[in-house]
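User: Some background: our group keeps a shared notebook of sequences we're curious about, and every so often someone picks one and asks for a predicted structure to add to the entry. Today it's my turn. The entry only has the sequence so far, pasted here. Could you supply the structure so I can complete it?
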Amino acid sequence: MKPISSDLVLENQGGAESMKIDSRSLSGGFAVAEAMRQTNPDVVACYPITPSTIVVEKFSELVANGEVDTEFVAVESEHSALSACLAATAAGVRSQTVSSSQGLAFMWEVLYAVSGLRLPVVLHCANRALSAPINIHGDHSDTMGARDSGWIQLYAENPQEAYDNALVAVRIAEHPDVLLPVLGSQDGYTVTHSVERVDVLPDEEAKKFVGKYIPEFSLLDTQNPVTFGPLISPEHAFELKLQGIEAMRNAEAIIEKVGEEFTSLTGRSLDPVELYRMEDSELAMVVIGSVAGAARVAVDRLRSDGIKAGLVKIRAYRPFPSLRICEVLAGRKGVAVLDRALSPGAPYSPLYGDICSALYSHGVILPLASFVYGIGGRDTYPAQIVDAFHRLEHESKLGTPIPQTSYLGIT
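Assistant: Of course. Here's the predicted structure to add to the notebook entry:
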């Protein structure tokens, strides 16, 4: 089905000139495929896996129709897909791949190799539960498992954000102060297969924004030979790993800088931490991904009942915005953290643990509550989030955190 589209003139936020954009009805998967076309990667290597297959199918169609001159490599596995991207990027070209769930897990070895080699590969992930039992629906088990692999992580709430993230990911990854791979995520089916309005930049504007990838080093530059991934001794390994840590620190400022440039171009915010009704809030909830929509509805219902609730949505999860989180949460009477992933054996789930560490390290002490939702693609409704806020309100009056994780939607 051809996406519905209409021309729309958008006045740049900077006010310099108007820009004609294309407003379309696109799923999150098709939106990412369109962004990939506009960034024109030299190599895309993929092995399709549900629910990210929609991206691969659409992009391969664009290649077959001659709408993009990418070399599309249909490999035999996800491990091979990321390995091909590693080799292509080391050879000096722009490369991207797509995956989900077990596919991302099969890439595990190569995830660390790509980040360790400081190669700016972009991976588009449709979040999906990890088996067993087999489940093809969305939760954050896959990407949360990769949170320490050295990849920058961006999360999209809706198809528009999926498109925007896919564009800025290239700029962030290829910035000379970063040179790290970027993983852009959207919730499987909830975003990948849901059709909404997406404002698409004109090709020339998207191309200008992303720019051309000009690597400092290339395996194919025979006049300046280099080695990638040699065996390294303990005398140097530590220092090289710390360079990756420093690059991740640099990435936080670059994400904000690129986001500001994108906002001036489109008028759309790319704030790594997005706030909703937080100005005078007494209770707050921290979320990632598509649940933010239901959470906003819950906040509005609570506000109409006289409860000062607010919402914090994290869009850039790695590097984790510790200082910003502390600034926006300090002084609240209580904070609830919603995770869409489990962490067996750990005290709490990933996002909650990161929030705890950030607050403690900056001397911010306040009542915290941990909630897990949506495992295996289970729907989460505003009423459930309202109930979580009510429980947080009750516990915050006692001045103590809820002692254990609560599970939304479990009776």
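Suggested note for the entry: The longest strand covers residues 18-27. The two ends are 41 Å apart (CA to CA).
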